[in-house]
Amino acid sequence: MRHYIAVFALLAAVYCEEVFNGDQVLRIHAESKKHIQILKELERDVDFGLDFWTNVVSTELPVDIRVPHARLYAIKNFLKENNIPFTVMINNVKELLDREREEMVHNAEMERKTKSFNFAAYHDLDTIYNFMDTLVANHSNLISKVNIGSTYENRHMYVLKFSTGGEKKPAIWIDAGVHAREWISHATAVWLADRIATDFKENRTPVPSILSQMDIYLMIVANPDGYVFTHRSLSEFYRFWRKSRSATSNPKCHGVDLNRNWDAEFGGPGASDDPCAEDYRGPSAQSEIEVKNIANFITDHGNFKSFMTLHSYKQLLMYPYGYVGTDAPDRTELHDVATQASKALNSWHGTVYKVGSIFHTIEQASGASVDWAYLRGIKYSFAFELRDTGEYGFLLPADQIVSTARETWFALRYIMQYVCDHPY
Ligand SMILES: *[C@@H]1O[C@H](CO)[C@@H](O)[C@H](O)[C@H]1NC(C)=O
Ligand SMILES: [Zn+2]
């Protein structure tokens, strides 16, 4: 009898491990308006604990959802009952999280030993800030570090300014890390900072000529509080944090979506007024100190000609508008520039990007930064969604950082050159 119980306990343990080893990411292929409606209801039900990695838009676009292990059985049954087809994109999120963490620990050790910086690794905020200091020290004739203010949790917000001198030259803005869990955007921006610096130093075209006409401002971590939060623990709750970390009217839910908080059709459709939602817009336009700091900096400068923001994932290169489906006045030109830039990107590794307005490529979004920039006269405003298309989603392996950054550089370089050649 005792033997039997022991065997049973063992079997139960094995079974539990199988079933409860971690969350999965499901890709859902809605086939009808009814399916879309059902999925939208699921998306709005924030209490259910599903984490939508991509939004419910139409039958054209699959929806990726991270489903907590405790909900897997129920959700799969629910989808089957409603005849909504799905596939498993990531079988075991925990396994990828463990691997990511192991690689980071190992890499940090290597970097300490060799006193070097590895671009093919993910880093925490302190390491990125140290990297910025070393880069500035190494290229003090070109780069300076600008402190544009502090975050909700009182961290500095830094922008790297690449300039060959001159007062308020026309300028290009690039930011990354607005959404904390999109780690490939921070890592890409780190690589870009180094690339711009070395290309200038080694006189490689077109960087010196671009920098003779324009300044480049690069913000590697636009949401430092959120980014620190994603490093705090291995648990999914932390690693997949998207928003800022400010308190809201609901004591149970923190944070505002920093890409729905801008003073650009704030409060319209395409953002939530529920503090627990991932796309919570905040209580008022630019209520978030992080958004306010960036907006003030750009407004005070007054001579930005291009605004670009790096996100992930989906491989998209987008332009305004996000808040409405009608064409922006410069739509034809922006579409051409984005198309050429995506071709330049594609020429490196063959990575395929889709091009279009935010509204028509992902979803309606109000209060987004590129709309804000565009509505304030910064014509060349673009948003990137970097790799991949969902195989790893937000858990893109570190061995793809450098190739992602390099191809993105091809697109950015094209746009920067174009902006220089088309003054307005
Ligand atoms: C700074 O310069 C040192 C010495 O040349 C070099 O070893 C280091 O990799 C550089 N670091 C950065 C971030 O540029
Ligand atoms: Zn994003």
TrEMBL record:
It comes from the Eukaryota. PROSITE patterns: CARBOXYPEPT_ZN_1, CARBOXYPEPT_ZN_2, PEPTIDASE_M14. Residues 121-419 form the Peptidase M14 domain. Pfam families: Peptidase_M14, Propep_M14. One of its GO terms (molecular function) is zinc ion binding. It comes from Cirrhinus molitorella (mud carp). Coiled coil: none annotated. Its cofactor is Zn(2+). InterPro entries: CARBOXYPEPT_ZN_1, CARBOXYPEPT_ZN_2, CPA_M14_CPD, M14A-like_propep, M14A_act_pep, Peptidase_M14. It is found in: Secreted. One of its GO terms (biological process) is proteolysis. This is Peptidase M14 domain-containing protein. Keywords: Carboxypeptidase, Disulfide bond, Hydrolase, Metal-binding, Metalloprotease, Protease, Secreted, Signal, Zinc.
